[in-house]
Design a protein that fits this description.
Blueprint lengths: L30 E6 L8 H14 L18 E6 L9 H8 L8 E10 L2 E9 L29 E5 L2 E5 L5 E8 L2 H7 L6 E5 L2 E7 L4 E5 L9 E5 L2 E5 L11 H13 L2 H13 L5 H17 L5 H10 L4 H13 L4 H10 L9 H13 L1
Parallel strand pairs: 1-2, 1-3
Antiparallel strand pairs: 3-4, 4-7, 5-6, 8-9, 10-11, 11-12
Length: 371
Protein backbone atom coordinates (compact mmCIF):
# COMPACT_ATOMS: atom_id res chain seq x y z
CA UNK A 1 0.00 0.00 0.00
CA UNK A 2 1.61 3.24 -1.14
CA UNK A 3 0.72 6.26 0.97
CA UNK A 4 1.32 9.77 -0.27
CA UNK A 5 2.42 11.58 2.85
CA UNK A 6 1.38 15.21 3.29
CA UNK A 7 1.83 15.53 7.00
CA UNK A 8 2.96 13.05 9.59
CA UNK A 9 2.22 13.65 13.23
CA UNK A 10 3.27 11.02 15.67
CA UNK A 11 1.78 11.17 19.11
CA UNK A 12 3.60 9.01 21.60
CA UNK A 13 1.87 8.85 24.98
CA UNK A 14 4.61 7.98 27.43
CA UNK A 15 3.66 7.86 31.07
CA UNK A 16 7.03 6.81 32.37
CA UNK A 17 8.63 6.32 35.75
CA UNK A 18 11.47 5.30 37.95
CA UNK A 19 11.99 1.57 38.40
CA UNK A 20 14.08 1.80 41.55
CA UNK A 21 12.72 2.34 45.05
CA UNK A 22 15.86 4.24 46.08
CA UNK A 23 15.63 6.68 43.19
CA UNK A 24 14.22 10.17 43.67
CA UNK A 25 10.75 9.85 42.15
CA UNK A 26 9.21 12.93 40.59
CA UNK A 27 5.79 13.79 39.31
CA UNK A 28 5.92 15.61 36.00
CA UNK A 29 2.64 17.17 34.89
CA UNK A 30 4.14 18.57 31.69
CA UNK A 31 4.25 17.46 28.09
CA UNK A 32 7.67 17.22 26.44
CA UNK A 33 7.62 17.41 22.64
CA UNK A 34 10.33 16.26 20.22
CA UNK A 35 9.95 17.65 16.70
CA UNK A 36 11.35 16.05 13.54
CA UNK A 37 10.94 18.45 10.60
CA UNK A 38 11.23 16.78 7.19
CA UNK A 39 14.72 15.44 6.62
CA UNK A 40 16.22 16.69 3.39
CA UNK A 41 17.23 13.92 1.01
CA UNK A 42 16.57 12.12 -2.28
CA UNK A 43 13.08 10.79 -2.94
CA UNK A 44 11.59 9.16 0.20
CA UNK A 45 14.92 8.27 1.81
CA UNK A 46 15.13 11.25 4.16
CA UNK A 47 11.57 10.76 5.43
CA UNK A 48 12.05 7.05 6.07
CA UNK A 49 15.36 7.58 7.86
CA UNK A 50 13.69 10.16 10.11
CA UNK A 51 10.91 7.65 10.86
CA UNK A 52 13.46 5.01 11.90
CA UNK A 53 15.36 7.50 14.08
CA UNK A 54 12.10 8.59 15.70
CA UNK A 55 11.28 4.99 16.57
CA UNK A 56 14.79 4.49 17.93
CA UNK A 57 14.37 7.57 20.11
CA UNK A 58 10.95 6.45 21.32
CA UNK A 59 12.44 3.17 22.53
CA UNK A 60 14.80 4.97 24.91
CA UNK A 61 11.77 5.78 27.08
CA UNK A 62 9.57 3.76 29.37
CA UNK A 63 5.92 3.96 30.27
CA UNK A 64 3.68 2.39 32.84
CA UNK A 65 2.74 -0.35 33.50
CA UNK A 66 5.47 -2.06 31.47
CA UNK A 67 7.86 -4.38 33.32
CA UNK A 68 10.72 -1.84 33.18
CA UNK A 69 8.60 0.58 35.19
CA UNK A 70 7.22 -1.61 38.00
CA UNK A 71 6.55 1.26 40.42
CA UNK A 72 4.34 3.03 37.87
CA UNK A 73 5.78 6.46 38.55
CA UNK A 74 4.58 9.21 36.25
CA UNK A 75 7.13 11.27 34.34
CA UNK A 76 4.51 12.94 32.21
CA UNK A 77 3.60 12.72 28.57
CA UNK A 78 6.18 12.59 25.79
CA UNK A 79 5.20 13.40 22.23
CA UNK A 80 7.13 12.94 19.00
CA UNK A 81 5.87 14.97 16.05
CA UNK A 82 7.25 15.22 12.57
CA UNK A 83 6.26 16.58 9.22
CA UNK A 84 6.93 15.64 5.62
CA UNK A 85 6.76 19.27 4.58
CA UNK A 86 10.17 21.03 4.25
CA UNK A 87 11.00 24.08 6.34
CA UNK A 88 11.89 27.45 4.85
CA UNK A 89 15.17 27.42 6.76
CA UNK A 90 17.23 24.70 8.42
CA UNK A 91 19.53 27.20 10.11
CA UNK A 92 19.39 27.17 13.91
CA UNK A 93 17.12 30.21 14.12
CA UNK A 94 14.78 28.72 11.52
CA UNK A 95 14.52 25.50 13.52
CA UNK A 96 13.87 27.44 16.72
CA UNK A 97 11.12 29.51 15.09
CA UNK A 98 9.45 26.37 13.71
CA UNK A 99 9.59 24.66 17.11
CA UNK A 100 8.17 27.65 18.96
CA UNK A 101 5.01 27.90 16.88
CA UNK A 102 2.00 28.08 19.20
CA UNK A 103 0.58 24.82 17.82
CA UNK A 104 3.86 22.97 18.51
CA UNK A 105 6.02 24.40 21.35
CA UNK A 106 8.67 21.66 21.04
CA UNK A 107 11.49 21.38 23.57
CA UNK A 108 13.74 19.26 21.31
CA UNK A 109 14.22 19.54 17.53
CA UNK A 110 16.03 16.93 15.43
CA UNK A 111 16.85 18.05 11.87
CA UNK A 112 18.62 15.94 9.29
CA UNK A 113 19.99 15.88 5.79
CA UNK A 114 20.76 12.78 3.73
CA UNK A 115 23.57 13.47 1.24
CA UNK A 116 25.47 11.39 -1.28
CA UNK A 117 29.20 11.46 -0.50
CA UNK A 118 31.96 9.35 -2.06
CA UNK A 119 29.47 6.77 -3.27
CA UNK A 120 27.69 6.50 0.09
CA UNK A 121 24.60 8.13 1.56
CA UNK A 122 25.42 10.01 4.76
CA UNK A 123 22.96 11.37 7.35
CA UNK A 124 23.95 14.63 9.03
CA UNK A 125 21.98 15.36 12.22
CA UNK A 126 21.57 18.61 14.15
CA UNK A 127 19.80 18.93 17.49
CA UNK A 128 18.33 22.21 18.74
CA UNK A 129 16.92 22.83 22.22
CA UNK A 130 14.79 26.01 22.00
CA UNK A 131 14.74 28.25 25.04
CA UNK A 132 11.47 29.19 26.75
CA UNK A 133 10.69 31.54 29.58
CA UNK A 134 8.83 30.35 32.65
CA UNK A 135 5.68 32.43 32.91
CA UNK A 136 4.54 33.67 36.33
CA UNK A 137 1.65 31.56 37.62
CA UNK A 138 1.48 29.77 34.25
CA UNK A 139 0.17 32.95 32.61
CA UNK A 140 2.02 32.78 29.32
CA UNK A 141 -0.26 35.48 27.95
CA UNK A 142 1.51 37.95 30.22
CA UNK A 143 4.71 37.33 28.26
CA UNK A 144 3.39 38.38 24.86
CA UNK A 145 6.82 39.10 23.41
CA UNK A 146 8.54 36.10 25.00
CA UNK A 147 8.29 32.42 24.08
CA UNK A 148 6.67 30.37 26.82
CA UNK A 149 5.77 26.66 26.70
CA UNK A 150 3.36 26.52 29.67
CA UNK A 151 5.43 24.01 31.64
CA UNK A 152 5.24 24.04 35.43
CA UNK A 153 8.40 21.96 35.87
CA UNK A 154 11.78 22.54 34.23
CA UNK A 155 13.82 19.51 35.22
CA UNK A 156 16.56 20.36 32.74
CA UNK A 157 17.44 23.37 34.92
CA UNK A 158 19.66 22.42 37.86
CA UNK A 159 18.67 24.41 40.95
CA UNK A 160 20.23 24.61 44.40
CA UNK A 161 18.64 26.52 47.29
CA UNK A 162 15.24 28.13 47.65
CA UNK A 163 13.63 31.54 47.32
CA UNK A 164 16.00 34.46 46.90
CA UNK A 165 18.91 32.29 48.00
CA UNK A 166 18.79 30.06 44.92
CA UNK A 167 21.26 29.45 42.13
CA UNK A 168 20.74 27.51 38.96
CA UNK A 169 22.36 26.51 35.68
CA UNK A 170 20.67 25.56 32.41
CA UNK A 171 21.56 23.28 29.53
CA UNK A 172 25.22 22.99 28.48
CA UNK A 173 24.32 23.83 24.85
CA UNK A 174 21.22 24.81 22.91
CA UNK A 175 22.59 23.38 19.65
CA UNK A 176 24.87 20.48 18.76
CA UNK A 177 25.61 18.07 15.91
CA UNK A 178 25.66 14.28 15.97
CA UNK A 179 28.39 12.29 14.22
CA UNK A 180 27.42 11.55 10.62
CA UNK A 181 25.71 8.22 9.98
CA UNK A 182 26.82 6.32 6.87
CA UNK A 183 23.77 4.40 5.69
CA UNK A 184 24.10 0.76 4.78
CA UNK A 185 23.55 0.10 1.05
CA UNK A 186 20.61 -2.22 1.79
CA UNK A 187 18.93 0.56 3.81
CA UNK A 188 19.29 2.91 0.84
CA UNK A 189 17.95 0.32 -1.58
CA UNK A 190 15.06 -0.59 0.72
CA UNK A 191 13.88 2.87 1.70
CA UNK A 192 14.79 5.27 -1.08
CA UNK A 193 11.68 4.45 -3.11
CA UNK A 194 9.36 3.16 -0.36
CA UNK A 195 6.87 5.72 0.92
CA UNK A 196 6.90 4.24 4.44
CA UNK A 197 8.00 1.40 6.69
CA UNK A 198 6.32 -1.98 6.19
CA UNK A 199 3.64 -2.87 8.75
CA UNK A 200 3.18 -6.60 9.42
CA UNK A 201 0.46 -8.43 11.30
CA UNK A 202 2.48 -10.06 14.08
CA UNK A 203 5.44 -9.54 16.35
CA UNK A 204 7.50 -12.02 14.32
CA UNK A 205 6.46 -10.81 10.88
CA UNK A 206 3.64 -12.41 8.96
CA UNK A 207 1.33 -10.81 6.43
CA UNK A 208 2.09 -7.31 5.13
CA UNK A 209 -0.76 -4.99 6.14
CA UNK A 210 0.52 -1.75 4.60
CA UNK A 211 3.06 1.00 5.18
CA UNK A 212 3.44 3.75 7.74
CA UNK A 213 1.67 6.93 6.77
CA UNK A 214 0.15 9.96 8.44
CA UNK A 215 -0.73 9.95 12.13
CA UNK A 216 1.59 7.16 13.17
CA UNK A 217 1.12 6.19 16.82
CA UNK A 218 3.42 4.00 18.91
CA UNK A 219 1.64 1.41 21.04
CA UNK A 220 4.25 -1.11 22.21
CA UNK A 221 8.04 -1.43 22.18
CA UNK A 222 10.10 -4.63 22.12
CA UNK A 223 13.63 -3.27 22.18
CA UNK A 224 15.26 -6.51 23.34
CA UNK A 225 14.01 -8.51 20.34
CA UNK A 226 15.82 -8.69 16.98
CA UNK A 227 14.75 -5.74 14.86
CA UNK A 228 13.08 -4.16 17.90
CA UNK A 229 9.55 -4.75 16.54
CA UNK A 230 7.29 -1.84 17.44
CA UNK A 231 3.52 -2.01 17.45
CA UNK A 232 2.04 1.00 15.70
CA UNK A 233 -1.28 2.37 14.52
CA UNK A 234 -1.20 4.19 11.19
CA UNK A 235 -4.55 5.33 9.89
CA UNK A 236 -6.81 2.29 10.26
CA UNK A 237 -3.88 -0.17 10.20
CA UNK A 238 -2.49 -1.71 13.38
CA UNK A 239 0.56 -3.93 13.26
CA UNK A 240 4.32 -4.17 13.77
CA UNK A 241 7.29 -2.47 12.12
CA UNK A 242 10.90 -3.57 12.55
CA UNK A 243 13.79 -1.15 12.82
CA UNK A 244 16.74 -1.75 10.50
CA UNK A 245 20.33 -1.12 11.52
CA UNK A 246 20.96 2.09 9.63
CA UNK A 247 24.74 1.88 9.79
CA UNK A 248 27.59 -0.49 10.62
CA UNK A 249 28.85 2.06 13.16
CA UNK A 250 26.90 2.73 16.37
CA UNK A 251 25.61 6.31 16.42
CA UNK A 252 25.28 8.20 19.68
CA UNK A 253 22.03 9.76 18.43
CA UNK A 254 19.37 7.78 20.32
CA UNK A 255 21.37 7.64 23.55
CA UNK A 256 22.28 11.35 23.59
CA UNK A 257 18.90 12.73 22.53
CA UNK A 258 17.12 10.04 24.55
CA UNK A 259 19.10 11.05 27.62
CA UNK A 260 18.15 14.69 27.14
CA UNK A 261 14.50 13.70 26.68
CA UNK A 262 14.60 11.79 29.97
CA UNK A 263 16.30 14.73 31.66
CA UNK A 264 13.47 17.04 30.57
CA UNK A 265 11.03 14.52 32.00
CA UNK A 266 12.84 14.04 35.31
CA UNK A 267 13.62 10.38 34.68
CA UNK A 268 17.05 10.61 36.26
CA UNK A 269 17.78 6.89 36.32
CA UNK A 270 17.22 6.34 32.63
CA UNK A 271 18.96 9.60 31.77
CA UNK A 272 22.05 8.34 33.62
CA UNK A 273 21.87 5.07 31.70
CA UNK A 274 21.57 6.84 28.33
CA UNK A 275 24.49 9.21 28.95
CA UNK A 276 26.59 6.27 30.11
CA UNK A 277 26.00 4.66 26.71
CA UNK A 278 27.10 7.89 25.01
CA UNK A 279 30.31 7.93 27.05
CA UNK A 280 31.04 4.28 26.30
CA UNK A 281 30.57 4.80 22.55
CA UNK A 282 34.01 5.09 20.89
CA UNK A 283 32.49 7.26 18.14
CA UNK A 284 31.47 10.02 20.55
CA UNK A 285 33.50 13.17 19.95
CA UNK A 286 34.98 15.29 22.76
CA UNK A 287 32.40 18.16 22.70
CA UNK A 288 29.51 15.71 23.01
CA UNK A 289 31.43 13.70 25.60
CA UNK A 290 31.80 16.84 27.73
CA UNK A 291 28.06 17.53 27.52
CA UNK A 292 27.22 13.91 28.39
CA UNK A 293 29.45 14.12 31.48
CA UNK A 294 27.73 17.33 32.61
CA UNK A 295 24.27 15.87 32.04
CA UNK A 296 25.11 12.61 33.79
CA UNK A 297 26.73 14.39 36.72
CA UNK A 298 23.72 16.63 37.20
CA UNK A 299 21.32 13.68 36.89
CA UNK A 300 23.29 11.76 39.51
CA UNK A 301 22.97 14.65 41.97
CA UNK A 302 19.26 14.98 41.19
CA UNK A 303 18.82 11.25 41.75
CA UNK A 304 20.31 11.47 45.22
CA UNK A 305 23.83 10.40 44.25
CA UNK A 306 27.09 12.21 43.60
CA UNK A 307 28.05 13.45 40.15
CA UNK A 308 31.17 15.39 41.12
CA UNK A 309 33.56 12.99 39.38
CA UNK A 310 31.68 13.34 36.07
CA UNK A 311 31.65 17.13 36.21
CA UNK A 312 35.30 17.31 37.31
CA UNK A 313 36.21 15.13 34.31
CA UNK A 314 34.25 17.45 32.02
CA UNK A 315 36.15 20.41 33.49
CA UNK A 316 39.47 18.72 32.73
CA UNK A 317 38.40 18.24 29.08
CA UNK A 318 37.06 21.80 28.69
CA UNK A 319 38.84 23.95 31.31
CA UNK A 320 38.02 27.26 29.60
CA UNK A 321 34.32 26.70 28.99
CA UNK A 322 32.16 29.05 31.08
CA UNK A 323 29.18 26.67 31.24
CA UNK A 324 31.41 23.82 32.41
CA UNK A 325 32.76 26.14 35.11
CA UNK A 326 29.21 26.90 36.25
CA UNK A 327 28.45 23.17 36.48
CA UNK A 328 31.65 22.62 38.44
CA UNK A 329 30.70 25.33 40.95
CA UNK A 330 27.22 23.80 41.32
CA UNK A 331 28.74 20.34 41.84
CA UNK A 332 31.17 21.58 44.47
CA UNK A 333 28.34 23.33 46.33
CA UNK A 334 26.11 20.24 46.09
CA UNK A 335 29.00 18.14 47.42
CA UNK A 336 29.48 20.39 50.45
CA UNK A 337 32.94 21.64 49.51
CA UNK A 338 34.24 24.56 51.58
CA UNK A 339 32.94 27.91 50.30
CA UNK A 340 36.42 29.46 50.25
CA UNK A 341 37.66 26.72 47.93
CA UNK A 342 34.75 27.32 45.56
CA UNK A 343 35.38 31.06 45.60
CA UNK A 344 39.03 30.45 44.77
CA UNK A 345 38.08 28.22 41.84
CA UNK A 346 35.75 30.93 40.53
CA UNK A 347 38.42 33.59 41.07
CA UNK A 348 40.84 31.53 38.97
CA UNK A 349 38.19 31.33 36.21
CA UNK A 350 36.98 34.93 36.52
CA UNK A 351 38.22 35.93 33.06
CA UNK A 352 35.70 33.52 31.53
CA UNK A 353 32.84 35.68 32.84
CA UNK A 354 31.71 39.10 31.70
CA UNK A 355 32.26 41.97 34.11
CA UNK A 356 29.33 42.17 36.55
CA UNK A 357 28.05 38.78 35.37
CA UNK A 358 24.76 38.15 37.19
CA UNK A 359 25.35 34.42 37.71
CA UNK A 360 28.92 34.93 38.98
CA UNK A 361 27.80 37.57 41.47
CA UNK A 362 24.76 35.57 42.59
CA UNK A 363 26.92 32.52 43.36
CA UNK A 364 29.21 34.66 45.50
CA UNK A 365 26.20 36.01 47.41
CA UNK A 366 24.94 32.44 47.87
CA UNK A 367 28.35 31.29 49.18
CA UNK A 368 28.51 34.25 51.57
CA UNK A 369 25.07 33.29 52.84
CA UNK A 370 26.40 29.80 53.68
CA UNK A 371 29.15 31.19 55.90
Amino acid sequence: MMVKVRFIQTVLALYLLLASAISHAVNNPDQITVYFPAFQGPEHLGLNVSTVLSLQLAQTTRRMPWPNNPDKHDFGEGIIRWSAEPLDSYAVQGLVEAAQRKNLLAQIVVAGTVRRFAGNFVVELDVVLPEYKVAPSMNCASLADTKCDYRTKNFEVWKIGTGSEKIEVGLPKRYFSISSIVLKPDVVNRYKAASGLTIRESLNGGKVLGETGDRLRFVEFNKSMPGAPTKVISGNIQGYVTLPELSDAVSEFSDMVGGILQLFRGDWQWAISSFTQVLENPNTRIPLRVDALLYRGMARFQNGGNGLDDITTAASLAPYDVTVTKYLAMALIANGINSDQIKQMLHDKALLFARDDDWYNKVHRYLNHLL
